[in-house]
Every structure is written in C-alpha cells, then in structure tokens.
Amino acid sequence: MSTVSGSNPQGSTTVFVRNATGLVRELSPFDAFNLVFSAVLIPVGITQVFSFAPTFWPNANVLVSFLLSIPLVFCFGMVYLYFTVAMPRSGGDYVWVSRILGPGVGFITNLSLTFVFTTWISFNFTTMMTLLLPSLGYVAGFTWAPDQLTQFLIATLLTILFAGLMMLGTKRVARYMVYSFAVVWLGMIIWLIGLAMTGHDAFVSNFNAQSGTTIQQVTSAANKAGFLSGGALDWAGTIFAMIYAFQVFTGFQWTGYFAGEIKNVRRTATVSIIGALVISAILYVGASLLVYNTYGVSNFASIAFLGFNKSSLGFAPYLPTLVKFLALPGFLQVFVAACFVLSVLWWTPTGFLIATRNLFAWSFDRLAPDGVARINDRLHTPVIATIIVAIWVEFLNYMNIYQNLGALLLNVIAVMAVAFILVALAAIVMPFTRRSLFESAPQMVRAHIAGVPVITIVGVIMLLSWAFVLYVAFTTTAFGQIGVKPLIEAFAVPIAGVIYYVIMRIVRAQQGIQLKAAFQEIPPE
Asked: Please, what is the Cα angle at 288 between 223 and 417, to 5 degrees?
C-alpha cells in the first residue's frame, strides 16, 4: 500500500507529523452539502421529535418548537461557518478550539463530540432495525422483530461495508451519497405529497378502517389514562421541546470537519452550511405543519400518548408507521416507509468521515500515533484511521445491543452541550485573544455590528442556546434521571480523554516534542 510518510526527509522531529496533510480538495459544493444535509437526517430526526416530545410534553407543539429554535440554530451555524472559513483544515472544532482556548480544551471538546457522533452511527443502526424496519413491516404487512444476535450481525456487516466504502476514497463516497440522496428524497417527497393530499377526514376514515381501533376510542382511552387534550398551547412544554430541535438540527454545520478536502472553501462552506440549514428548516417546519394538518394536533397527541406511554394501540405510532393511513397507493406507502429505513444508510458515511478526519487531525498534531495520519496516495484517504473508527463503532454496536448503551448514555446530550458551549466560548474570545488570527481571516469573518465582532455576537447566542439545552437536560427527565452515576457514565469518555491528553503530553515531552508549539499555528494543508 502506498502511503504518505509520517517523517520529514531529514528525519528530525517536527512540530507536525509532516509539512502537508496529503488530503486532496476534491469535494464539490454539492458533495459537502449532501454530507452535512445527511447528518441532519430529517427522516429519522422528525420521527424522533414526534415520538420523544409527545412522550414527555404531550401538549407541546413541535411546529412552534422548530420555529423558535431556527434563529438560534442559525447563530450556531454562523459560528461554524466563520471558523471553517478562517481555519479551513480537517478536524473542525478541534483545530479552532485548540488554537484559541488551548490544546487540552480543544482535544477534549472534539473528543467529546466525536464520541457523541460515533454513538449515533451505532444508535441509528439499532433505530433502523428496531423502529424503522418494524414500521416498514406494519405498512407492508410483515412482522420484523430481530433478536440481539441478528441485530449484532447486521450492525457488524454494515460497519464492515461502510468502512470498506470509506477506504475507497472520498470521490466514491460522494458518488454513493448522491445515489442514496436521490432515492431517499424521492421517497420523502412522496411522503410530503401524501400528507398534503390526505385530508384529516380521510386520515380518520383510513385509521378507523385499518388500525383495529378508532380515533374516538384512542382519544377516550388516552383521556382515561391521564392525557388532557386540547386547550391552550403548552408553552413550557413547547419551549422545553426545543432541545429536540437543537439535537436533530445538529450536523448541518459539520463542513469544518472535512474542510481540508473541499474546493473553494468560502463558497463551499457557505453553500453547504447555510444551504443545509435553510432547506432543513423549511422541511422540518413544512413536515410538522403537514403532520398536524393531516393527523390533527389533538388526535396525534392522543395517539402518541397512548402508543408511547401505555402501549395499548397494538402498534408503535411512529411517523413511518402512520404512512399506512395516507391516501397513497399501497406500493408507494411501502416505498416511502422503506426510504425511512434507507435514510440511515444514506447518512452513515458522514459519521465515518467526521470521526476519521478528527482522528487524523489529532495525529497530525501528534496527539495520536503518527501512523493514524498516514494517507493512501492513490485513494487520498486515512486508511488506518478508518480501521480504528470501524473497530470503535463495532465496540459501540456490542455495547448498544447487548449492554443497553442507550440507557447508560441518556445524559449524553449534556456532553454535547458542554462541548458546544466551549466552541461558542472560543468564538466569543477569538477577536480579542487571537487578534492576529482574527485580523488575517477573510472579510466575512471580520465583520462588525456596532463595533462588536459578529463572530462574538453569534458566539454569545450559541453559548446561551446550548446552556439552555444543558439546563433542560439537568432539570427534566427527557434524557433520563440526573445523578452521579448516569453523569459519570455519560462523561466517561471525556474524563478518560483528560487522562489520555496528560499522558500524551508527557510522552511527547520525553521525545523532545513540545505539543504547545504545534498549537501556535494552523496546521499546513
């Protein structure tokens, strides 16, 4: 295998592993958009929001939650856009935070986010097998209830296949993403059309005829079980439900993680990040409006309350399951439900790409063994980093399927919130603590409003937004019980990361490498 070496010609110790990354800028604006748009994963995201939110806040209005969150999420995206343009290197927030707040803070921040994002790969495999495939089965008329061994074998096979795809290079990954994008979004467009074409009365008629119960019986049973439908909007629940909007929007800003491989950084970063946010916002709001219009706000809340809290419906009322009651031909209903399943396979390469590029960035700064940063000359991809990520994902598959990792990590959103708060803090202070870096950035990054750097303003809004998410995570049961044990479980990887960083710093110092020197400058291209 031909690789880019990790040593310089003279064999002397250098600050970075080498003087060039070996990565090639071959991703187009659409490729970058497709990657980050897949990370938003709207088919799964909207399914989760319309199941989680009604479970904890039955009278919350998800449509309003999305509308309230969009301006705040926009500021979140602007922070990542400004940083991507100012420091267009693979590794994203690892590079930015380490150069502004210090190497230790940058590493722990990025490690925490990489941990969260890789758990999503495994969790989405499980979601596909235990939620989306049973929904497809309900629509198509078959039963799917895989045991643990079947789940593990499927997750293992998918992990191997996607690791192999990643080793073939970003061009082939991008091509796969285009094909999967086309199939998934053909299905989603048909779903949205089906929602728009199905009037509320038609839905009620179809539900009454095919579900084994009636809307009237569901509403009555939900009320007897303690659900009070109707009345004024539950503003508290709606505001708290914004945390799910923040969670499912996360991903649209990920261009910075593979910034070392995109063409025309400023244009591509802007098109991909802002484009993914705008389109995602339109689709989340539009789909939420159609869901409420077709199913009825009160009726849907009753169905969700009974299905997710009391399990007396006979089926789990996830959005892909409810496709069965839309005014669509049977074969299109099956196709739409199948596209919800396929959406997981559309996004998975993005999860692998983010993780491998972050590992690559750590190695390039000598925070991981030099071999992790080796790039295959022909394929332009870090093969060793990909293998490491695949092994880690397989470990997560085992933990998730056999050890109930999801329950252990219910507070993992708190890990993500703390990490994003640190990214926001870096944005706030950058113009003042790294003035030379700020002043050498492109004009769009140096913009001011009333004499205050815009990156500082959006950084403050981002910090407050994720502080709110952290507050909700600690004050409600939406993400599990708050206590010492669940918090230690959720923060186990960041805690281990602190220990690892201290050890690596000592080891590198003994080798004559002062890590601090690497973080005084942006890594080379």
From this structure: 95
User: Number of helices (H) and strands (E), helices first, in the chain?
Assistant: 24, 2
| Out of 150-154, 197-201, 231-235, 435-439, least confident range | 231-235
Ramachandran area for residue 380 (φ above 0: left; ψ -120 to 50: alpha; else beta): left
CATH of domain 29-403: 1.10.4160
pLDDT value at 222 more than 90: no
Amino acid at the residue 21: T
The CA distance from 360 to 381, in Å, is 10
Q: Based on the number of CB atoms within 10 Å of its own CB, is 329 exposed (0-12), middle (13-18) or buried (19 or more)?
A: exposed
> Which of 260-269, 387-396, 426-435 bottoms out in mean pLDDT, i.e. has the lowest?
260-269
d(CA 461, CA 75): 7
The 10s digit of each residue's pLDDT in 99-122 is 999 999 999 999 999 999 999 999
Q: What's the rounded Cα separation, in Å, for the pair 106 and 97?
A: 5
Measured CA to CA in angstroms, residue 290 lies from 52, 227, 314, 429 at distances of: 18, 23, 25, 42
Residues facing residue 478 across a β-bridge: 480
